[in-house]
Amino acid sequence: MSAGRFLALVSRAFIFVFVLLVLANNLAVEQDSANSILSTRARKECTVEPGGSNATDDAVAIRDAFEECGLGGKVVFLNETYYVNSVLNTSGLEDVDVELHGTLLWSTDIDYWLNNSLPMGYQNHTTAWIFGGSQVRFQGFGYGTFDGNGQVWYDFAGAVSNYPHRPHQLTIWETYDSAF
Predict the structure, then answer these.
(1) Which positions carry the signal peptide feature in this UniProt record (predicted)?
(2) Sheet harboring 103-106: ordered strands across?
């Protein structure tokens, strides 16, 4: 092989390797950009605004927040009291962060709860809130509170330990890969 032909072959090989390196680098940059966009993408955040008194049913705002941010978002309860006057079903959540900084206070309307609580499918058990999904991260920070007004129910039911249709306050339903 002549020296001229050898140099031409080496030049072509060099150009080929150079083009491969440029293409590989571009693919790596595009992949890094895609990963960066995905990892830094802001999660949609819904702050539940409380109504401020038991005359307002905050369950409506709670439901709306989970409908809007329950798939890949974040739901934040402020350090306020939320008046829960109606049943909730926030199941089917996916990859959601929930922060409870305040108090969820269920109403004392025993007639409402006895007639409207959600059946749980066994015995006579019902619930006031069905909550569930996958990759749910629920934090209470050591002070977030669920207040089901237990004393009102105790006074009402007396010695009956399993009063028919007396709701459980919260039922975690069909939930996996989650932390509470």
Answers:
(1) 1-24
(2) 81-84, 103-106, 145-147
